[in-house]
Amino acid sequence: MLHSKLTKGVKRDPSLPKGRQIDDISEKEIKELVGDLYFDRSQLIEALHLIQDKFNCLSQRHLKSLSELFKLSQAEVFEVASFYHHFDIVKDGESLDHELTIRICEGLSCEMAGAQHLIKNVKEIIDENKIRIQKVPCIGRCANAPAAQVGKKAVNNATPLKLLKFSKEDTTPEIPDYQNLSDYLNIGGYECLKKVIAKKLNLENAISILAKSGLRGLGGAGFPADKKWQIVNSYNGLRYMTINGDEGEPGTFKDRFWLESEPHKMLEGAQIAALLVGCNKIYLYMRDEYPAVLEILKAEIEKLEKTNFWLVPMEIRRGAGAYICGEESAMIESIEGKRGLPRHRPPYIAEKGLFGRPTLNHNIETLFWIPEILSKGSDWFAGLGFNENHKGVRSYSVSGRVLNPGVKVAPAGIPLRKLIDDYCGGMLPGHKLKAFFPGGASGGIFPAKMCDMGLDFGIFEPHGGFVGSHAVIILSDQDSILDAVINTIKFFKHESCGQCTPCRNGTEKLISLLSNCNKDVELYEDLMMVMRDSSICGLGQAATNCLNHLLKYFSEELNGTR
Questions:
Q1: Which domains does the chain have, with CATH numbers?
Q2: 20 to 30 Å CA-CA from 212: which of 64, 119, 245, 322?
Q3: Which helix (H) or strand (E) covers residue 50, if one does?
Q4: pTM
C-alpha cells in the first residue's frame, strides 16, 4: 500500500536523473550553432539570438541543451530568455504557427500616423496561419511613420499592400549607403586618434577641452562627459567601457541616423575615450531593432581590426527588445547575460560596473562629437549653441505633425518654434501646434504656449519635464492629449521590468483609471507621488510626467470638455 502511494503519479523514467533530459540531436544542433562562442555566462543572450535567428524560435529542447553547454540551470536560462521580447519560447510538443513575423510599431508617432488602422487592414489581406502580426513599441523610425519590420527588413511609411509585397520578398536588412572606412580616411578620419597614439593629446588636456566645450551625455541624463572620464580614471585596476546604443525612448532615432551614415566618427570617439581613460575593452550594446546598423558595425569593425587604429578591442552585444536596458545598470546586467534589471545605487557603475569593475559608459552621439571637438577645440563646439547660455549642437529627432520630420542638427537651446519653422518646414498644412514632447515619452508633454522655451538640459526640469534624448514629438489641434498620455503609459507598463511594485502595479493602475475616464485628481496625484519617490530607476520615476502635465495643462481633456 505504501509503495503504491509513493509511486502513484510518477512520470519520469527511474533509470534517468531527475529533471528535463537533453537529447543528442538538440545538443548537436546547439553545439554547431554556438560553437564559436566561449561558454561564459555573458555570452548567453548572444547564444539565444543565434538560436532565434536560426530556428525562428527558442524550443525547450534547445534551451535544455544550451543550459548544459553553459553549465547553468535550466531555470536560469529560461528566466533570461523569457525576459526579452524578441525571444519566442515554444514548449515541448508545440510547434511554431507562423513562418514570418511582421512587427508594426504602435509608438506615439506611428499611432498618430494610423498604426492601428494599418494593423487592422493588413490582417485582412495576409494569411495569419503563415504570418504573425506583432504590435511593438517604438522601432526608431518615427520620421517615417507608420513604420514596420518585415522579418529584418525595415519598412518606412508602411501600407497594407507594401507589407504584403515585402512579405513575399527577401526579408534580410537593407543596407543604406554610408561612409565606410576608406571614405572616412579620405576626409581625414582617425587623425585625432593618431594624436592620442603619438602622445600629442593626453587625458588631462582632453578633459580640459571637453569641459570647456560643454559636451554632455546625449543619451538622456546629460551628465558632463569630462566628469565621467575623471571619475572612471580615478579608480585603479581593470576598467571597461560600454556604449549604449539601445535608444528605445519613443520618438528617438538620432543614433540610428548617425550609425547608418557615418559610423566611424563614433568608432573613433570610442577608441579615443577608451585609450585615454585606460579601459581594457569596449562593449557596444546595440538595439536588435536596428539590423542594418548591426550589419554595418560588424563589417566596419572587421575592417578596423586590420588597421593600426584598433587599440582597444570592441565587442558588439545585441539587445533583445527591452527598453529598460537603456538604463545603464540594466544594460550592464544584460551584457553580463542576465535579465535587464536596474541595480540599486550606490555604487554607481563608474565605480563598480561591468563585471564589477569601473566602467565608462557613453551614448552613441556623445562619442560621435568627440573627435571633432578634440580636433577643432572647445570654443568651436561651445560656440555652436543658440546663445551664450547654451553650448554645442544637438541631433534632434523630430516627428509628428511637422512638414519635414527627421534628425535635425541644430543649436543647443533652440526654441521649439524656431526648430519647427526653420528646420522642419513648419507644421503640416491644416494643423496648428497644440502640444509637444521635448524629450520623448519620459520628458513630459507641454502646451504650445511654452514653445519659445529653449530645448536644452535644465530648461524643462523646473516644470516637471526634461529634454532627455532630444526626441521632439509634435502634436496638433487634431490630436487628443489624453490619448497621447495613455499611449505613453501603456508603453511604460509594457516595458516595466517588474522588479519594483510602484512601477509594475502603478503603470497598470494608471492605464485602468485613464481608460475608464476616472477624474479623481487626488488619486492620480497620490499614485504619481508613490511612483516618483519609490521606483528603483528612471522608468517608474518618469512614467507619470505626461500624466502630471495632462492634469496641469490639459485638464479639460480629462474632464471631457475638450
A1: 100-167 (3.40.30.10), 181-378 (3.40.50.11540), 393-476 (3.10.20.600), 481-558 (1.20.1440.230)
A2: 245
A3: helix 44-55
A4: 0.94
